[in-house]
Amino acid sequence: ASLTVVMRGLVATVETSDPGDRTAWQRFLPSGPFALLPVRGGHHNIVWSTTPNAARTLEGMSPEAFAVAANRALAGELPGMAGGPSPDAAATGGAGAVAAAAGGAFGAASDAVRKALAGLVPEAQRWRPPPKVLRWVGTPPKSFPLQLRTAGRYVLPRLALIGDAAHAVHPLAGQGVNLGLADAHALAKALAMARE
């Protein structure tokens, strides 16, 4: 059985500002997750779950325009994004205007807390922002329909379906790989018990 989700998974290889970055970055957007995954030498793969219209727009962007959109997604600056600026943030001055109106008390308190905590956490372990996406490289971004799929039957005589042959899920955080490994473990355990 198959269920097509009205979403697309967009993939691209991008060059980033920090060739040494080996951190996997993920942001949960209203349309779905956005992942920036390190691969090699300043390159990352992007896996971006989004709407069909947004996917078409992103696929048609120049390398640099795509980088702007990806950086906005990573920073939480897309319109209507939970936690991101509201559409009128620029007009009102956002949090900076509120802090200034409060006589800078918020900013001073924030700086004091930041300084106090700085001594508690070694610099290598402190949070840092993700690297900037500079441009897509190689093949332009492409998207594919997201599906949830499961086989009608997992087991027949002398046959067992496991992993993606048995079920396909949303490409989030390696769930498909993890489920496939769990399937292989369960099958090996069942076969070992059957031999006993």
From TrEMBL:
A Gene Ontology biological process term: xanthophyll biosynthetic process
InterPro entries: FAD-bd, FAD/NAD-bd_sf, Ubi_Hdrlase_CS, UbiH/COQ6_monooxygenase
Gene3D superfamilies linked to this entry: D-Amino Acid Oxidase, subunit A, domain 2, FAD/NAD(P)-binding domain
Domain FAD-binding: 143-194
UniProt cross-references to Pfam families, sorted A to Z: FAD_binding_3
Listed transmembrane segments: none
Listed GO MF terms: FAD binding
UniProt GO cellular component terms: mitochondrion
Name of this chain's protein: FAD-binding domain-containing protein
Originating organism: Chlamydomonas euryale
